[in-house]
Amino acid sequence: MQQRITPQEAVRLAQESLAGATAAELATHIQERFGLAIKAPIVTVLLGSMQERAELDRTGAAAYQQIQRWKDENPEEAKKLAAATRKREAARKKKAARQPGAAPTREGSPTADPPDLSEGNAPC
To answer: What is the pTM of this model?
Structure first.
């Protein structure tokens, strides 16, 4: 059984093959190569989504590097911040366990407390 290629993957592969091609040219290439009929405006949207994802990945990596640099420059503060985060998470789990029928919260969920970024604790 042959797997179907997604429109996103088809656009990515077409972009690699025909760098600098217009959306209409990419749509034609996708139709011929993969048998997917994708309109040129949709190709444009998918290309924009791919560019946005790449930019988000770049900025996320840059933010992570900045946080790591701050941790390296401020090891004692980083340890205090990590300990406070662990303490808050343990208290949250303990509270959730005491409440019958309450769904446990996952770390990083919208219900979790945001990190303490008050003056002196900010990573920048």
So the answer is: 0.57
CB crowding 70-108: b at 16 or more within 10 Å, else e: beeeeeeebeebeeeeeeeeeebeeeeeeeeeeeebeee
How distant, in Å, are the alpha carbons of 35, 38, 78 from that of 45?
19, 11, 41
Residue 29: how many CB atoms within 10 A of its CB? Answer: 19
- Give the tens place of pLDDT for each residue, 21-38: 999 999 999 999 999 999
Closest of 28, 30, 24 to residue 12, by C-alpha = 30
Q: What does the domain layout of the chain look like in residue ranges?
A: 7-94
